[in-house]
Design brief:
With 780 residues, the protein is mainly beta. It contains seven helices and 37 strands. 48% of the residues are buried.
Length: 780
């Protein structure tokens, strides 16, 4: 789909919206005035400490006021006995929100880094995904409770536009009892805005430095029988780093319908297509010399610090030449389509049956390096479950039992690159064909032992089958091509129990203690890359597992002070760790027999002077991660020298030990200037290691953002504005650093020092420099 089609889609939404708006406005105004008192009462209830009981929710006062979305046990919202943070749209709706990093970093336990490309970010929950250079691993990602993680464990965070979201739920800790495979770190659920919340039309335009522009629109409507919201956007940017421009378009829709008093249906659609130009990842020394890769048009005349790739002249074998990212036109052109439907039927007043089906197609064309990649990965996800709310031995209980099945058809190809730019695909280097299947069952019981104490117990069992085969191609000079077939059929059985206690100690304090487990099988791509960074046999990889203990507390003093504090300790076995073998080579994966992840998470929301400055607010999140190997010996080889090195006690690379985000601001709560406000935000990220031997550290950074906005409530004004400066003091920082492999000196047999590792390419992307944004939004 071209940018013109995306623009047409957004325009169509706008035109239809305008026609619809006038007729809806007057009717809805009268209805909203009737609902205002009821809504204010509901908000007051939300500000009060939530009750522990998970019994059937109280029915609304009027069926005309609230649309019932679900009676089944939610996957990701209102999760009992576990550390969960919800980031509401109020925290990011008056910001550029260029990527989902602007949302999830507001939650404790989260660290975000730059992925492969200007819109891609890597999200780490408790350090679980810190060693991956793109997308999301080791956590399950959902949107409106529909799965976005495919059965091979990969989710991409550049899938949609953050302007579509109304809230994000971050569930932290090993969670395979609830979410199955790959939920070692937990889950993230993005919730789109409801049609009832939109109630008409909203359209906006954001602009900013480096050619950034985002044109978006959403239309929504809801009442007691239906709720529909449709969002569309077209986004482009030139990128601060050389050769990182992009264009991407999104359509995102959710429709929910009441089919009588006992039946409900939800339908979900996400379509995203983007063209992204990519720069090369640099060595640390290249980053120091030229962080934003300026003057890197041609390898022959490149400025110092420019990264290059090595390209076969004929695309098969023989001579190679160096090309910059601009010369090779490194890029991604990816298309993602997700269609899902969910049906709920009340078998009785206390029992609900739910069935959900999702189709997810990922089509990729990625000449991103010296080995371009193409593939079609279509997946199917089916779940069916029953939720019963009743009592056991006189105690209120919520019982859950479900089955699930998902399947991924993997058809992927890798090639040699030729000097002919983006379309320079040479000879095949490997194909990977096959499938991934997961089949399992989940059970959960939430039991109210006393009015203030709740017990949660759950278990999941899953059978996973990886049935894939690689054909590797080599091209000897003056000889016929050699094909090597490597079949891999791996079967895994995993069981994940969990148990938690949830105690409302006093009205203002809730405590929880939890033991949870997680697991994740290797991915098909892990099985066919050797430690040399080339195609080959790596099929002996084992599934990784973790067991974690959480102790947490939540404090709520009315609506003026809320805080959450959690300490965690997790034991990993066979942790899957990926490392870069170099800029012209593939990343490879190995098992670490044992490691420990432990840390502390703190979140605070405080209105310090409610009587004097009622609009003043301070929000802060802090994460401490202490993660290290306890049983890991790594063999390094150089020429005829081979050494086994003990990594026990070494910090796990890529994990940021300390991450802090503090935002202080003021929003005028009443009067003619209601909605006028602003904030200053400080983000501090600690230094972290980039190698297993902890020799080379990436420096920490402190970034400051400022924001001024006017966002009047609906009815007081139709236009809202904001202006924002990101990275106010223009700090040059490491946006991300892929883990690099340690090496030996072939002459001495000694491990190479940090000065040598600093020249290892394929690691560093620079963070965003100072950028000014402004936006306007209209409501109808």
């Amino acid at each position: 789909m071209s940018k013109y089609l995306f623009s047409a889609a957004v325009s169509a939404v706008l035109v239809a919206s305008a026609a619809h708006a006038q007729s809806v406005h007057e009717d809805r105004r009268a209805e909203l005035l009737r609902q205002r008192a009821a809504i204010d009462a509901e908000l007051a209830k939300l500000d009060a400490p939530a009750p522990v009981s998970q019994t059937t929710p109280t029915a609304p006062a009027s069926a005309d006021e609230i649309f019932v979305t679900s009676k089944a046990l939610s996957l990701t919202t209102q999760v009992s006995g576990q550390t969960v943070t919800t980031v509401d749209a109020a925290a990011f709706r008056n910001t550029p929100a260029t990527t989902i990093a602007d949302i999830v970093r507001l939650s404790p336990g989260i660290a975000v880094t730059q992925g492969n490309g200007p819109r891609d970010v890597s999200v780490s929950v408790r350090g679980s995904n810190a060693r991956n250079s793109f997308g999301a691993r080791n956590l399950q990602v959902f949107e409106d409770d529909f799965p976005v993680t495919q059965p091979d464990g990969l989710a991409r965070f550049d899938l949609t536009d953050p302007h579509a979201y109304g809230a994000v739920d971050v569930v932290r800790g090993p969670s395979s009892a609830r979410y199955g495979n790959y939920a070692l770190g937990g889950a993230v659920n993005f919730r789109t805005r409801s049609g009832r919340d939109i109630n008409g039309v909203e359209a906006g335009l954001d602009i900013g430095g480096d050619g950034f522009a985002n044109l978006y629109a959403t239309i929504g409507d809801g009442n007691a029988s239906h709720d529909i919201a449709v969002f569309g956007s077209y986004v482009r940017g030139d990128g601060a780093t050389g050769h990182t421009g992009y264009e991407t378009g999104t359509i995102n829709a959710l429709a929910r319908f009441e089919l009588g008093t006992r039946d409900r249906v939800a339908v979900k659609l996400i379509y995203n297509e983007g063209e992204f130009r990519l720069s090369t990842r640099l060595s640390y020394n290249q980053y120091l010399a030229n962080p934003y890769q300026q003057g890197c048009k041609a390898a022959a005349s490149a400025a110092p610090g420019c990264g290059t790739i090595s390209v076969l002249v004929n695309g098969v074998s023989g001579a190679r030449i160096a090309q910059t990212a601009d010369e090779g036109d490194l890029a991604r052109n990816d298309r993602r389509t997700i269609i899902g439907t969910r049906y709920e039927h009340d078998l009785g007043p206390d029992t609900t049956w739910r069935t959900q089906a999702t189709f997810d197609s990922r089509v990729v064309n990625q000449p991103t390096s010296a080995t371009p990649f193409k593939g079609t990965l279509d997946s199917y996800n089916l779940t069916s479950d029953i939720t019963h709310r009743g009592s056991i031995a006189g105690m209120a209980a919520t019982s859950f039992l479900g089955v699930f099945y998902n399947y991924l058809d993997n058809q992927s190809y890798s090639f040699n690159k030729t000097p002919a730019g983006r379309n320079g695909f040479g000879a095949l280097t490997q194909t990977v064909f096959g499938d991934v299947r997961n089949l399992g069952v989940r059970a959960r019981e939430e039991l109210q032992l006393t009015p203030t104490l709740q017990l949660i117990a759950g278990i999941g069992a899953e059978r996973s089958i990886l049935n894939v085969r690689q054909t590797a191609y080599s091209y000897p000079v003056a000889a016929s091509p050699v094909l090597t077939l490597i079949p891999a059929e791996r079967h895994f059985t995993n069981v994940a129990p969990e148990a938690a206690l949830f105690w409302q100690a006093v009205d203002a304090v809730r405590l929880h203690a939890r033991v949870g487990t997680g697991y994740g099988i290797p991915q098909a791509g892990n099985l066919f890359v050797t430690s040399a960074g080339v195609a080959g046999n790596n099929t002996s990889l084992k599934a990784q597992r973790n067991t974690g203990v959480d102790l947490g507390a939540e404090v709520a003093l009315g609506s003026n002070f809320k805080a959450e504090l959690t300490g965690y300790y997790e034991w990993f076995t066979n942790e899957l760790v990926s490392q870069s073998a170099g800029v012209n080579l593939l990343a490879y994966t190995s098992n670490v027999p044992r490691s420990v992840h432990r840390g502390v998470e703190l979140g605070v929301s405080w209105r310090p002077l409610p009587a004097v400055l009622p609009g003043a607010k301070l929000d802060a999140s802090y994460s401490y991660n202490d993660q290290y190997y306890t049983d890991f010996r790594e063999r390094l080889t150089a020429g005829g020298v081979s050494t086994l090195l003990n990594r026990n006690g070494k910090a796990i690379p890529g994990v940021v030990p300390n991450f802090l985000n503090v935002r202080g601001g003021y929003d005028q709560p009443a009067g003619p200037l209601r909605g006028l406000g602003g904030f200053a935000e400080i983000t501090w990220r600690d230094r972290f290691f980039a190698d297993n031997s902890n020799l080379l550290a990436m420096p920490g950074a402190t970034l400051v953002n400022v924001n001024l906005h006017y966002d009047p409530p609906r009815g007081a004004g139709r236009l809202s504005f904001y202006a924002s400066v990101q990275n106010l003091f223009d700090v040059t920082s490491v946006g991300s650093a892929a883990i690099i492999a340690n090496s030996l000196n072939a002459a001495t047999g000694a491990e190479n020092p940090a000065s040598v590792l600093a020249n290892t390419t394929g690691s560093v992307y620079a963070g965003q420099p100072r950028t000014v944004y402004a936006g306007v939004k209209a409501r109808f």
